[in-house]
């Protein structure tokens, strides 16, 4: 491994951290020659801040927008140190400016087979998401407006009025075209009908059977 001056290494690590909302992982730091003793030293003198298991923050960098979401993405990394979680559903809807209601929990989508338990205040959704169905808002990876609306269209628990409003705003803002808007609204109506039918059937089955009194 070629020798790299300490100042150059720090600049390179800081540049990487800046692209990740100010954060880096211990494994990433090792690529720049920072082992555990170096990380402990820099944390002790205030250059780095510990932000979680194997996660550090460069103290001199400004706190990024949606700092909590950036940290949650790094939390989701696997043994290969690659993060896999992305903001989705109500959280993505809020990030895209398509919701008037602030979600009370953070919604993340992770690959099927993901084994970590959801942190407090988070809901994990297991699904396969294509590369073209995500993009970055700052340092946050989020599902596109199209994918976000498709996910929520299939969520019968999501308020119908909020969905219709979000689809119309997305269309007005040029995020989706008329064909997609109509397809999403049709999908949503079918999901609501199916959920209503299922609820009605369960209610009928739960009603007590009245027996006729014997004469």
Fold topology:
Elements lengths: L5 H13 L4 E3 H5 L5 H9 L3 E5 L2 E4 L8 H9 L10 E2 L1 H7 L10 E5 L11 E5 L7 E4 L2 E4 L1 H9 L6 H13 L5 H29 L9
Describe this structure in words.
By secondary structure, the protein is an alpha+beta fold. It folds into two domains: 53 residues; 138 residues, Beta Polymerase, domain 2, CATH 3.30.460. Helices cover 44% and strands 15% of the residues. Strands 1-3-2 form a three-stranded antiparallel β-sheet, sandwiched between helices. Strands 4-5-6 form a three-stranded mixed β-sheet. A hairpin with a 2-residue loop joins strand 2 and strand 3. The longest helix is centred in the C-terminal third of the chain and has 29 residues. The radius of gyration is 23 Å and the shape is elongated. The N and C termini lie far apart (98 Å).
What's the SSE pattern?
Answer: HEHHEEHEHEEEEHHH
- Into which percentage range does the β-strand content fall? 5-15%
Query: For the residues shown, what is the average pLDDT?
Result: 91
The backbone outline, from C-alpha atoms, is elongated
Task: List the defining traits of the structure above.
alpha+beta, 2 domains, 3-stranded mixed β-sheet, elongated, 215 residues, Beta Polymerase, domain 2, 8 strands, 3-stranded antiparallel β-sheet
Quick recap of the structure?
The protein is an alpha+beta fold and 215 residues long. 44% of the residues lie in helices and 15% in strands.
